[in-house]
Write a structure and sequence with these properties.
The complex is a heterodimer.
Chain A (H helix, E strand, L loop, with lengths): L3 H25 L3 H5 L3 H7 L12 H9 L13 H10 L4 H5 L13 H6 L5 H5 L31
Chain B lengths: L1 H13 L7 H15 L8 H9 L7 H5 L7 E2 L6 E2 L14 H15 L6 H13 L5
Antiparallel strand pairs in B: 1-2
Classes of the chains: A mainly alpha, B mainly alpha.
Amino acid sequence: MRTRSGIRRIDWIVWSLAAAFLVHAAVAAVPPTQAAEPTAYAEECGACHTAYPARLLRPADWAVVLASLDRHFGVDASLDATTRAAMARQLGVDPAVASAATTKAAPRITQQGWFREEHDEISAQQFRSPAVGSAANCSACHAGADRGQFDEQSVRIPR
Amino acid sequence: MFRKALIAATVLLAAPTLADTPESLMRGYAEQARTTSASYAGPSPAAGRRLFHQQPRDWSCATCHTDQPTATGRHAITGKAISPLSPVANPERFRDAAKVEKWFKRNCSDTLGRLCTPAEKADLISFLLGVKEGA
């Protein structure tokens, strides 16, 4: 014998479980690649240095960077395969190429021809000054570096 | 009552992504340590402090995180600011098991030239939880 309140209780249980399942699905079951995609590059690379815009290297060079993260300019910057694949897509690199083992040295942005040309008036001492530290520290002079902005008018070289 | 059950079920099922705390991660590492050594005595802040300053090669933890884990650090190569490592000063630290594992793997190889043991990880977290802000 079911009373009116008994039916309501069963409804409550069913709806509670359904709602909880939906919340759980939304929070926990998003595929990691989708969840990681928008922020992987900024978060992983930006933790230690400027999140250098993808345009500063060719895709083939990024592939070498991604394939050698365990020995990344003298430090271990290794990543799990899922995050590395997400970053490869953000950088326009085939994830399969980015995960292939390589013995090549990772290319330096600061050794690219265009970089040397753009910075030919900056001395080695200026790059090494305490306020800058190294040529890798873009935002010391380019305030918008973290947003990918490097226009010449906004350059301020710290003294 | 059923409304409460609904809220409880929702919170419990949604919780896995928010569940990690420095204390729960420390306990997890301590349990791992206990499975390999029956005589394991639990996390030691003093051992964690020694580990933090240990420098067998180029760098110690303190090289980038400074001698004071509640202070803002600076990356030894790039100069980028590093937010304080101790949860005492930075509540965002040690809140995600996967992130913690990623950084232990990277930073133990960069400083010690090897992976850290579960006992060492528990020691380090207990040290970082015990430091006094600004002291």
